[in-house]
């Protein structure tokens, strides 16, 4: 017996600020959105403790709590929130064929891709232990908590240099832990870092262990890759800036992407190369990567999906 195929007006793939905001707007527009939350409902912010820079929370808010607030708001307007993952898509024609959890087939009139990006970490057990308690992949998000303190940034590219430069304005001292004996960053970014007196660059070093007192980060154990010499640095903030990987593999066959894997959208919109398919949040934003900008593009995507469907009726 054939399984009945569900028809959906607006399918939102992924959660987090982009997916949940898209759901709020789509539900209020009576698009009856269905959200597949993915393996990490709420996205990257669920791995964050204090969020101090999202409007509307004057005293700050815990990342997971904020995501639950957004989810409840979307559900209040009738969003069908589902725990599960989309495992297959066919975007070659509309309605778009989508399979969730390898078993459930749906036909979607519009799709909003909000699958986000995953920060790349070193892979240390101690790094995972102190995630959100001194270990971070976002200086703009968490640097404020380490004002006047020593911090470390891992990486040698543009992002690492930007993060170190930003943190140098907040902290007492910033160590840059660079695996090679040169930067991969642009000349301009290199000069900015090298001209900053409270940034110390530790060439040819890797992190062997993130050190802590069981609650928060207190330092890092480093090793010189050329000499094998080990040293400890005292830091309270440990920022990993070795890149983000957009979660776009599922759509690679159909959706145009930049060389770095982020989805291309038409300037000033969330429209992809496929009419009826929109992209919001970190999956298409490799510049700002903030909760508030993700929420903004989620709003845009829902409004564009609504207009797209209205023009057809």
Task: Describe the 3D structure.
This protein is α/β, with parallel strands linked by helices and 313 residues long. It has two domains: 6-118 and 244-312, FAD/NAD(P)-binding domain (3-Layer(bba) Sandwich); 121-240, FAD/NAD(P)-binding domain (3-Layer(bba) Sandwich). It is built from seven helices and 19 strands. The chain has helices at 16-28, 63-76, 125-129, 139-142, 158-168, 187-194, 291-312; strands at 6-13, 34-36, 50-51, 61-62, 80-82, 86-90, 96-100, 104-113, 117-119, 135-136, 150-154, 173-177, 199-202, 205-212, 217-224, 230-233, 237-240, 244-246, 277-279. Strands 1, 2, 5, 6, 7, 8 and 19 form a seven-stranded mixed beta sheet that branches. A five-stranded parallel beta sheet has the order 10-17-11-12-13, with helices on one face. A three-stranded antiparallel beta sheet has the order 14-15-16. Helix 6 links the parallel strand 12 and strand 13. The longest helix is centred in the C-terminal third of the chain and has 22 residues, at 291-312. The chain is elongated, with a radius of gyration of 21 Å. It starts with 5 loop residues before the first strand and ends with a helix.
Overview features:
single chain; 313 residues; alpha/beta; FAD/NAD(P)-binding domain; 2 domains; seven-stranded mixed sheet; five-stranded parallel sheet; 25% helix
């Amino acid at each position: 017996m054939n399984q009945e195929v569900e028809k959906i007006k607006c399918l939102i793939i992924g959660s987090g600020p982009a997916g949940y905001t898209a759901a709020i707007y789509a539900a209020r527009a009576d698009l009856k959105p269905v959200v597949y939350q993915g393996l990490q409902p709420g996205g990257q912010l669920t791995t964050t403790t204090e969020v101090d820079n999202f409007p509307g929370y004057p005293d700050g808010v815990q990342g997971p709590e904020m995501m639950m607030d957004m989810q409840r708001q979307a559900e209040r307007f009738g969003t069908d929130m589902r725990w599960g993952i989309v495992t297959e898509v066919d975007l070659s024609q509309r309605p778009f064929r989508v399979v969730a959890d390898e078993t459930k087939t749906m036909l979607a009139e519009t799709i909003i891709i909000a699958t986000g990006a995953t920060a790349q970490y070193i892979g240390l057990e101690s790094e995972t232990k102190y995630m959100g308690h001194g270990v971070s992949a976002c200086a703009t998000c968490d640097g404020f908590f380490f004002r006047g303190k020593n911090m470390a940034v891992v990486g040698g590219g543009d992002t690492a240099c930007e993060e170190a430069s930003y943190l140098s304005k907040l902290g007492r001292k910033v160590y840059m832990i660079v695996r090679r004996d040169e930067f991969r960053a642009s000349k301009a970014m290199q000069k900015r870092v090298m001209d900053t007196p409270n940034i110390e660059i530790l060439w040819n070093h890797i992190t062997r262990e993130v050190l802590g007192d069981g609650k928060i980060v207190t330092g890092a154990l480093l090793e010189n890759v050329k000499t094998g010499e080990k040293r400890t640095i005292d830091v309270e903030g440990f920022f990993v800036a070795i890149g983000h990987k957009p979660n776009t593999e599922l759509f690679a066959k159909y959706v145009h992407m930049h060389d770095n894997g982020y989805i291309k959208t038409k300037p000033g919109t969330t429209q992809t190369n496929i009419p009826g398919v929109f992209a919001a949040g970190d999956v298409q934003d490799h510049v700002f990567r903030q909760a508030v900008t993700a929420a903004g593009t989620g709003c845009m995507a829902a409004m564009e999906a609504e207009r797209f469907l209205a023009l057809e009726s």
